[in-house]
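Format notes (please read before filing issues)

Several people have asked whether sequences and C-alpha cells are stored in separate files. They are not. Every record keeps both together, in the order shown below: the sequence lines, then the C-alpha cell lines. Line labels are part of the format and must not be stripped during preprocessing.
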Amino acid sequence: MKTLLYSSVVLVVVVAVLRNQFSKQFVNMADLVLDQIYFGLCKLDGVQEFNQRSPNYMEGNWIPVHKELKVVGVPGKGNLPQELVGTTYARIGPNLKCWPPTNKHHAFNGEAMIHTIHMDTNSSIKYSNNWIRENLPNKRWDDIGKECGPTFGFADLNDGGLVLFRYLVLKMKSKLKGIVHPPQERIQAGSTAIVHHAEKIFACSELFLPFEIKMSSDSVNPIGFYDYHGKLTNRKNGPVDGTFSAHPVIDEKTGDLYYASTNQAAGSVAGGQPFLDLGVVDKTGVLYKLFHIPIRNPTSAFYHDIMLTENYVIIPETSLKKDVTRLNSYKTLTFYNETEPMRFGIIGRDARPQMK
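Then the structure lines:
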C-alpha cells in the first residue's frame, strides 16, 4: 500500500512538471485520462453500490433542493401569535448543488443553504431559500451543477477502501490545471447551524472558520470568513487557521458565547500532540479567552457540542474516534473504540488560559 502511495505522489510531481512543458491540448487529454482513472477507481471501490444500498442518502427527503425560491406564500390555517408577526425563522443545512454525485454521498456533503419562513402578518407566511454563494477562489457558482465531475467528501473518508487513490487522482487533476485550492478551514461556509451574536450572523461548522452573512427575510448575502481579528489564524500549533464549533453556546445572562473545536486538518497533530480549542467571546464580539487543551490521539471523531452550567463548561469526548492513518490500510477514518469509555472535560468558567 505504501509503495503505491509513494508512486502516486511521484506521479503528482511528474504531472506538475509536464504541465509546464506541454500544450493546452496535452493538459486536456491528460485531464480526460485522469477522469477515466477516477471513475475506474470508483467502480472498483463500489461507489454506486454504496449510494444505492438501503438506507442511503440519495432518496426521499435526502434529495437536495435545486430551485431557489423568493417570498413564496405558504398556505396555512388560523392565526399566528402577535409576538411572532414580523419575525423570521431560519434553518441551515448542506444542499449539494451538483446532483447526482460521482463520489460516495453522505448527509454532511453539500453547499450551505438557508431556508427562511417570514411571518408577514398574523395570517400570512412567506418562504424563501438561498445558497450561501461564497466568493471563493476557483469556485464559479454558475458552473456548479452543469456536470458532476470527480469529487471527494466525508463518506469517501468514512468508508475507507481506495479513498486515498481517488484523492490522489483529484490532486493530480488540480496540479495539471494549475488550480490551488483553499485550505480545509476555508473551503465553504459552514452548514450545521446559524448563530446570531454581537450583531453578527455566522454560518457554523466544526470543520471551518465561522462564515459571516447578512440576512433579510428573502435573501442571504455572503460577507466572508471571520477570524475574530486574527485570533483564529496565524496559529503556532497545527494548521494556520483554527476552526469554530458546530453549536456554540450563548449564556443568556452575560451574553458570552462559548465554543469548542479541534482542527483535524492536515498538520493538526503537531509533534504528535493534537489540541482542543475552547474560546469565549463577550457580548460585544471580543474573543477574550482562548484555551489550547492537549487531548488524546487518536482524538474523538467529533467535538460537536458543549454544555454550559452556571460555573462550568462541559465538553464530551466520545468513544467514536478518528485516525487518518487507518486509511493506509483501507479502513474507515472513524471507528468505535470500546476500550475508551466516554469522558467529560469540565472546566471552570472562571479559569484563565495558561498558553497563548
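For reference, the curators noted about this record: The longest strand covers residues 112-121. The mean pLDDT is 88.
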